[in-house]
């Protein structure tokens, strides 16, 4: 059996085979056991867990939003960039998957070791350059004969674009992206060994009526020092920073000077709207509070104390009897 979705005719055939005895449940078990054996290709060593790949995807989803804002402002046209996929493959396989002539921006990301490759499809790159030079954003693929001016314009555009990676990575590393190389032929670019595992983040890019892919190739050597920060535990935990004694003292003094409303309710009552409309000066409303029971004092609309009413120097006052505890707001 294959992992593909079966058609209704195939399902009916299987049910018929089971009912007639041509196949048994043991046959399915044998196939399931055989399927547990998986071939492992040591050339495609998986150095990153699915959890870490998901974390990298989240980081670059934020990066794609930053790029969308940046290119929209620079090109003054409709730009949409989103993460299409994230996978770990050998460096050699990545090089074979991109065009023979393309736009390759190599960035150093100190203090991390290694370099990151920012590959831009020629259709996208020329559409961007056409917009920067005042055109409509049409794309003409002539990467093999870039002029010095065109090379300078493109390298400056992508150098500034990659600055957004600093903000996108700020939660896991404080990096300083620097454009170290600009190349058009991937065969002339050897960042790591062919079998080195790299993470490739593919960004689907739409500029006006032109669409293409931007690929970010991140070697394992770059991510190795920050791999622990790519786990779910790191993302979920909250760092508790201890405050300095001076800060604590300042906060306490300001809190002590804050005003809060303190209200003591004498009781409540229910009357009809008709009676409410007829109320006048001198009328008496009977409350449901017994005179021999303590009243409730509220601090910021939260019941905090039981009190008894009285007078202090001819002024109405209350005397606190005990604290009220319980509830989520009991602090």
Automatic annotation (TrEMBL):
SUPFAM superfamilies: CheC-like (SSF103039), Surface presentation of antigens (SPOA) (SSF101801)
Keyword flag Secreted: no
Residue span, Flagellar motor switch protein FliN-like C-terminal domain: 254-323
Coiled-coil zones: none
Annotated protein name in UniProt: Flagellar motor switch protein FliM
Subcellular location: Cell membrane; Bacterial flagellum basal body
Membrane topology term: Peripheral membrane protein
UniProt KW keywords: Bacterial flagellum, Cell membrane, Cell projection, Chemotaxis, Cilium, Flagellar rotation, Flagellum, Membrane
Transmembrane regions listed in the UniProt entry: none
CDD domains registered for this protein in UniProt: FliM
InterPro entries: CheC-like_sf, Flag_FliM, FliN-like_C, SpoA-like_sf
Family: Belongs to the FliM family.
Job of this protein: One of the proteins that forms a switch complex that is proposed to be located at the base of the basal body. This complex interacts with chemotaxis proteins (such as CheY) in addition to contacting components of the motor that determine the direction of flagellar rotation.
């Amino acid at each position: 059996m294959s992992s593909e979705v079966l058609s209704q005719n195939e399902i009916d055939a299987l049910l018929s085979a089971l009912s007639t005895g041509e196949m048994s449940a043991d046959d399915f078990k044998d196939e399931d056991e055989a399927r547990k054996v998986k071939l492992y290709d040591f050339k495609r060593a998986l150095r990153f867990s699915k959890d870490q790949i998901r974390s990298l995807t989240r980081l670059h989803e934020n990066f794609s939003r930053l790029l969308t804002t940046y290119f929209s402002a620079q090109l003054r046209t409709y730009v949409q960039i989103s993460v299409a996929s994230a996978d770990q493959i050998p460096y050699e396989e990545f090089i074979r998957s991109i065009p023979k002539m393309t736009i390759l921006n190599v960035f150093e990301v100190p203090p991390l070791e290694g370099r990151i490759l920012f590959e831009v499809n020629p259709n996208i790159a020329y559409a961007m350059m056409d917009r920067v030079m005042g055109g409509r954003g049409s794309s003409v693929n002539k990467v093999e004969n870039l002029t010095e001016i065109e090379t300078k314009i493109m390298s400056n555009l992508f150098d500034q674009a990659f600055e957004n990676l600093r903000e996108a990575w700020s939660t896991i590393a404080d990096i300083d992206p620097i454009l170290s190389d600009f190349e058009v032929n991937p065969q002339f670019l050897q960042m790591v060994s062919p079998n080195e595992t790299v993470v490739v983040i593919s960004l689907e890019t739409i500029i006006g009526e032109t669409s293409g892919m931007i690929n970010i190739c991140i070697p394992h050597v770059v991510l190795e020092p920050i791999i622990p920060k790519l786990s779910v535990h790191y993302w979920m935990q909250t760092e508790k920073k201890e405050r300095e004694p001076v800060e604590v003292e300042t906060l306490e003094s300001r809190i002590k000077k804050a005003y809060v409303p303190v209200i003591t309710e004498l009781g409540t009552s229910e009357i009809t709207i008709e009676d409410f409309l007829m109320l006048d000066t001198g009328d008496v409303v009977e409350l449901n509070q017994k005179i021999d029971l303590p009243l409730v004092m509220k601090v910021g609309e939260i019941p905090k104390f039981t009190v008894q009413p009285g007078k202090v120097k001819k002024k109405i006052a209350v005397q606190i009897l005990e604290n009220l505890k319980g509830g989520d707001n009991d602090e």
